[in-house]
Amino acid sequence: MQVSSPTLTRQPLYQQTAAALSEILAKTEPGSFLPSEPSLAQELGVSRSTLREAMRTFENQGLIVRRRGIGTYVTTPPKAIETGLEVLESVASMAKRMGFEVEISDLLIKESKPSAEEGSIFEIQPDHSLLTISRIVHVDGIPSAYLVDILPKCICRKISPRIRLRDPSST
Amino acid sequence: MQVSSPTLTRQPLYQQTAAALSEILAKTEPGSFLPSEPSLAQELGVSRSTLREAMRTFENQGLIVRRRGIGTYVTTPPKAIETGLEVLESVASMAKRMGFEVEISDLLIKESKPSAEEGSIFEIQPDHSLLTISRIVHVDGIPSAYLVDILPKCICRKISPRIRLRDPSST
DNA sequence: CGCAATTTGTACGTATGTATT
DNA sequence: TAATACATACGTACAAATTGC
To answer: Are strands A130-139 and A142-152 parallel, antiparallel or unpaired?
Structure first.
């Protein structure tokens, strides 16, 4: 199960490996484990580093889960979809990884108080603030996704300590 | 500008490097270039691989842009925020990278026809379908973000060829 | 136009750390 | 304790893109 002939280098080896890996994942029962990295690498004829680079994609997408000391198993897919979507990975990073040109436009950040529903989702007090971040992702120039993230302002620091909002009144 | 003493290994070296790099980024004028990877690596006292692993975070966040043959420069931040937020990287991958436990719940995928506004955003025909994907991201068990992605169904295949929707009527 | 220098991207091999069984 | 599996880290080499000569 070699990945490709060494002479054809149109695509990076790790992407070719990802393609081959994709077929293996498709044939693997959800919940069951993949072979170990060394054996998989040997089977595909690539180094372990390259294999791991290829696996990275699927891990980010949440299609596989890797556990130190245990192994790597294929995720049980969510009910609504057959194989994974970008449940974990963002559309932007996914497209970028596949070699497309990615641009962000219409970035908009709003601060607001939670509605009743939002309050129940996040289990926060009504006086806490929510941030709503929306933007449009362009893939190779065409608008391809409209993304909205809603998250408590307090969480924001935890996840991304570098964030610093300007005074909203100045916009 | 060494990253840390070699004996303290509480945190992976590339994360310590990311922290050090973060300070460098903060002191770097937006739009200007960083030193080359070899020199930066030497300055920080780590290998180029480790430095690149550290840079990966910021690249995914869109804080830096790397150009082969040119160099790496710091992004001009969007108007609304002082430093970058997860404009490119999803909340989930960011949190995961920082070592938090990440779970996805309440995944919901709806198919619909575009509204007038949505049609103008995506520049598609009214008979094309839109997919609305929503889910809640839990970081270390607490609900931390509500994410909504809206994208044309036709785009979906391009970005994520592995997606395969089930018959909506069966849900 | 080609050629060389610079810079990031990819790929490999090896060694060691850490978690699980 | 030992064996296994993934995680991290290093060094090296070459490929590919860009710039300047």
So the answer is: antiparallel
Angstrom distance (rounded) from CA A3 to CA A18: 9
Q: Which of A83, A90, A124 to mutate to test the interface with B (most CBs of B within 10 A)?
A: A90
SS3 A103: strand
- Read out DSSP for B17-32? HHHHHHHHHHHSPTTP
**Rounded to two decimals, what is the model's pTM?**
0.70
Distance CA B74, CA A74 (A): 37
- How far, in Å, CA of A91 to CA of A108, rounded? 18
How many helices (H) and strands (E) would you count in chain A?
A: 6, 5
Query: How far apart, in whole angstroms, are the C-alpha atoms of residue B29 and residue B26?
Result: 8
- pLDDT digits 0-9 by tens, A63-84: 899 999 999 999 865 433 332 3
**Better-scored residue on pLDDT, A150 or B100:** A150
Q: Whole-number Å distance, CA A122 to C1' D10? A: 43
